[in-house]
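Hello K.,

You asked for the raw outputs rather than the summary table, so here they are, unedited. I folded two proteins back to back in the same session to keep the settings identical. This is the first:
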Amino acid sequence: MKHVHETNDGFVSLWPTKILKRTLPDTQAANQALAGFIEDLDRKHRDVTTDYRSDDLFSHDHSGILWLRECVNVTVRDYFRHLGMDYDIRWSLQAWANVNRFGDYHDYHNHPHAYLSGTYYVRVPAQFEDLETRSDVRPGRLTLYDPRACANMTAIKGDPYIEPEYTVEPTSGMILLWPAFVNHFVHPNLSKQSRLSISFNVMLKWSDDYLPAQ
C-alpha cells in the first residue's frame, strides 16, 4: 500500500500521524489587520470563541481573512501532497476566532465531522504572570496526544513511543495542521494580554474517487 513505508531491510512504518507546523513569512501587516478584526468581533460578540458555530470567519470579505484563507488552502494542498495523495481532492473550510484572556483554556477535545483541523496564531503573548505555581505549567501552549491509546505503556529509554504527547509553543505567524481525530488541549493563558488565534476545520467535499482500493 502506498501509505505504508517499507525499507529494503524489512522494516515497515505503520500508522504514521502527520502534523504540519510552519511559520508563514512576512506576517506582521496581516497579523495587525487580523488582530483588529478579531478584537472588533469580540467587542460585538463576547462569546465569539465559544460560539464558534455561529459564524464562519472565512466568509468575511476582509483583506486579512482573504489572505489567511488562501494560506490555509496552500497548507492543506501541501499536506496532501506530502502524504502522496496527489489526486483531485476538494474541500471546504470553516474558521472561527479564539480570544484567550488570562486563565482561558480549551479542554481536551477533537473535531468531529472534519478531515483536518488547524490553527493560525495571530498574536501570542511574550510574557506571563509570575504565579509561584508548579514548574511544569506550559502556559498558552498546545498539546496533541498520541491517538493510539496507551502506546507508551511499556516504552523504555530511546523508544519512539515513550512520549504520549507533543507540545507546541506557538509564535505569531505559526500555522498548524493535523488530522481532526487527534485529541488536543490548549493550556491556560497566564498573560494579562489576550492571545489571538484562528482555528479552522477542513471538510471534504465527498467523491467516490476517495474510496481506497480494498
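The second followed immediately with the same parameters:
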Amino acid sequence: MARKETAADAANTGRLKQIALTYKMTRRADKKIGLVLAAVGIVTFGVFLAIGFLIGHPIYLGILGLLLAFLATAIVFGRRAERAAFGQMEGQPGAAAAVLDNIGRGWTTTPAVAMNRNQDVVHRAVGKAGIVLVAEGNPNRVKTLLAAEKRKMNRIVADVPVHDLVVGTGEGQVELKKLRTTMLKLPRVLTGPQVTATNDRLRALGDLMSNMPLPKGPMPKGMRLPKGGPKAR
C-alpha cells in the first residue's frame, strides 16, 4: 500500500513540475499570462457566486463556480501555452517535423525525406488521405524539392494521391499552428490495408534519416549539413 501511495505522490509531483515548467516557458512569450488566468478564474467564480446570491443558493453556486473557474483557467492556459510554443517554434528548421510527430493515430510520418544545404526540408506523412509532403524553408527553393519528391512518389505509388503543403505565413502557405488541422481535414480516400501497402512500398526507398544523424524536432539555428553529406533526392 505504501508503495502505491509513494508512486502516486511521485506522479503528482511530476505533473506539478511539468505545469510549472510549462507556465515559465509560456510566460517568456506571453507576459500577460498570469493576469489573464487570474482574470478568467475570478470572473468565472464571481459570476456564479453572484447568481447564487440572487437565487438564494450561494454555497452551491459558489462551489460550482469554483470548479468551473478552475476548468476555464486550465483551458485558457492550455490554449495560450500551445500558442506560445508554436510561436517559439515558428521559423525554426525541423519545426514541422515536431508537429507531424504528434499528429495522431493513423498517420506514419518520415522526417527529412529531402533536404538541401540551406536547411530547406521536405517531410512525408502517409495516412488515409494519401501521401502528404510537408515542406519548410525558402518558398522558392522548396518548390524544387517538392517537385522532385512528387515525381518520385508518382513513380513508386502512382495510384495514391499526393498532397503538398508549405509551412509558413505567406500566401498559399500553411501556418505551423494550423498544420495538424489542415492535414486532418484532407479527404480520406484510402482504406487501412491500402495505407499499410503504401507504407511498405515507401519504406523500401529509405530516407535521409537512415543515412545521416539529424536531431528530432526543431534543429538549432545556424546548423549546416557537412560537406559531402547526402543531397536532396
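The chain has two domains: 2-89, 95-210.

Happy to rerun anything if the numbers look odd on your end.

Regards,
P.
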